[in-house]
Specification:
- With 80 residues, the chain is mainly α.
- Helix content is 76%, strand content 0%.
- It is elongated and about 70 Å long.
- The relative contact order is 0.05.
Amino acid sequence: MADHVASVKQAGVKTSPKTGGILRYFGEAISELKKVVWLSRQEILYLTGLVILVSVAVGLILGLLDFGFAALIDKVILGR
């Protein structure tokens, strides 16, 4: 970070936080988004399916644990 500030000062760029305002912010955001390496459609579909599969599996495991603990509580505490 300090190296960046030093190089900016050497280049003669003003470092005032108020310089440019909202237009500068959006300009820098667009500039950064152009550097992003976006996933292919195939990768997106695969990873989305994987997330859904893992979510369903975890939901089923938690549901079974909840059912099991509820049955255990019924037997131990309520004596059913």
